[in-house]
Fold this protein.
Amino acid sequence: MGQMFQRVKGFQDILGDDCLYWQYAEDTIKAIFKQYSISEVRLPVLERTEVFNRGIGGTTDIVEKEMFTMDDSSGGGTLSLRPEATAGIVRAYIENGLYNPPILHRFYCIGPMFRKENPQKGRFRQFVQGDVEFLGSSSPLTDADIIGMLMSYFDKLGLGKFVKLELNSVGCPKCRPSYQKKLIDYFNGHAGEMCEDCNRRLERNPLRVLDCKQQKCREFIKNAPIMLDELCDECKEHFDNVQYYLGLLNVPFVINPLMVRGLDYYVRTAFEVVTDKLGAASAVGGGGRYDGLVETLGGPSTPGIGFAIGMDRVVALLKEVSTVEKLQPLVYVVTFGDKSLEEGLKVLTRLRSLGIVAEIDYAQKGLKNQMKKADRSGAKYAIIMGEDELARGVVSVRTMANSSQEEMSLENFYKLIKE
Ligand SMILES: [Zn+2]
Ligand SMILES: [Zn+2]
């Protein structure tokens, strides 16, 4: 045998029953997107690094240390695998002139993202996000509706009681600078007792200090000044209205004044769906408003809001708390010899045309062997097409669970199956 290879660390092979959870998670979200008449976009996983630098922010962890970046041999500069979807969607929105006419546009995209994080439980270097962006509305009702859609996804999956919606406002370019100053003043008083990362963030991106998970930093973070106390009138009104509309839509939430999200482009509404079922990887989805992003990436001033669902974590949560139906045939067709096979294939075709999952043994080796395979397939029934039975116009139908066997006409067999 030749040399064997292993997959790259932090990347996964998703196989077998795991894929059933993935299909369930993806089919369900796509059905919801359809219900909200959101158009799909399929975009490259590779963009000019500059799209992310400018879009996500040069001082975020993602851009500073988590992107897979390579030289662009043809055009100069560098290219990066997308670490998130929003910047690329906004790039495509601008490049394809979709802002014309300037109506509300709604897009979704489901696909792999790449971040050079330390691989650990629940964190992969290639992971899948279900991503939604609404571009062209600054109304707080948009915020409430998109958040309501996100929460309806978890309800539909039966995960509603395992997740919690956290809401915050991160202010706007008008009210945030004075808050940032307050934050810097406050943390500067404790800088010596806080971690290295926090000290670095304090200089470059003070809001991110609130994200620190280290216990010694949390001590100071919990008493830090909060953005909600510093919102300008417009931001305050927007935030009040988002809460009012969420109430009308029956979407429960809790306010978390320390939640800031890891991306620079958010203004006003920020939200996260968290669970305590997955250990440290607590966020299963989140997003926010990014009214300045289209302009930052070279387009006309366009308000926007979006969210991303961590599909890997949704699947992990599903596996934790539920089971999905296994992929198995209802009927296993057992045949012996030419005549039997001929009739067996007719039955197989008929069953499939009725939408019934049915299998046949390709090797056609003896009854015992085929029954073993029927058992292994998980089929509920085996239909045995013995030649002498066929001559009498009947087939034998075995109920696999209790090995009871009964002769019946094909007609009665189809009746049984339809039930
Ligand atoms: Zn403001
Ligand atoms: Zn820290």
